Amino acid sequence: NVSRVSVYKDVNADNVWQLGDTEIGGVNNPTGTTATVNFTDNQTVTFGVPQPKYFVVYTMKSNATATLTIGANIANAAAILVAGSDTTVLSGTTSSGNATIQVPADVVTMTGADSSTSPVSQGATDDFLRFQLQVTTNADNGQASFTGAAVTLTGTLPWSDVDNVIVYRSADATWTVGDTPLESAVPASSSVSVTFPAETITTAAPTNSYFVVLNLKTTADATKTVGASLGTGSLTVSAPDTVSTIGFPLSSTNVSITDVPDQLTIASDNTNAQTTILQGAQQEFLRLSPLANQDNVVWTGLIVTKTGTASFDNVSRVSVYKDVNADNVWQ
Q: Which of 46, 90, 200, 229 is deepest in the core (most CB within 10 A)?
């Protein structure tokens, strides 16, 4: 699983190994459990002279077995090789921790834009964010699986006024209702997680675009604003691949909401079961049932047309009553 065991000298004395440090010896493709590293640049350690640090470094093979663990140990003083008759002593910690071998991660980069338009109507379904994805660091197979997005609802509109948050895929940079919906989610808070079957992202320049789309309720408060945002860590790809922080947060404008005209339907039935009405009496003639198609309608009045042979000169008052006890009977 190891292609090379190296010893490096900390040339800049920062106590941190980096590729800019100097390799003073190494052995390729070690076998068994030990590797003897003979220095190509022998190091002279002088009494009283401050000494640099040295690092034992493994270079792993690209096909190293994932999930196995590996570490380094200096077993005893005899494992420290010196010239001549000088001797060695081990001091301090001589064993590292064991690291788990993992498949290297491809890195996905997001580029996006605000695609919102203002205003948006009550009950409308419209796009707010557009983004594309590409594998920009190919450390494994150059492919990543895009499986979800955590969308934050912004603006002053309560999240409960949003029916659905939908993620779409489009073959171009324009969203239409004919594009492919990957999945939707009903908000239970201002943070809405939408998960879907894996979308394959590659190193190729992207042609598909993804859209965050909001479907507002027909009763959405027209005095408020609404928008959407994707923060760092909001896009999910399958492990071990990761999404770069570049381009985040991606946020739309908080757009205003247009109040769509509502419709009031009045259903009526003839409740006058009597054929006579006494002089000076009150009697109901119509029972009305109002129904709004969405949101609300302010009902302000009613024009009643008289029928029959008597003129309105015979009527002292025309009234409309509300059935306060909901028994469908006027009293």
A: 229
Q: 79-100 pLDDT, tens per residue?
A: 999 999 999 999 988 899 999 9
User: How do residues 181-239 score in pLDDT, each as one tens digit?
Assistant: 999 999 999 999 999 999 999 999 999 999 999 999 999 999 999 999 999 999 999 99
Q: Cα–Cα distance between 138 and 310 in angstroms, integer?
A: 91
Evaluate whether 146 touches 108 at the Cβ level (below 8 Å). Answer: yes
Backbone torsions φ then ψ of 78, nearest 5 degrees? -65, -15
Q: Per residue in 73-83, is it b (16+ CB within 10 Å) or e — as a string?
A: eeeeeeeeeee
The amino acid at 303: I
pTM: 0.66
Task: Give CA separation, 300 vs 216, 284, 316, in Å.
Answer: 28, 20, 22
With CA atoms as reference, report the closest residue to 101 among 59, 66, 60.
66
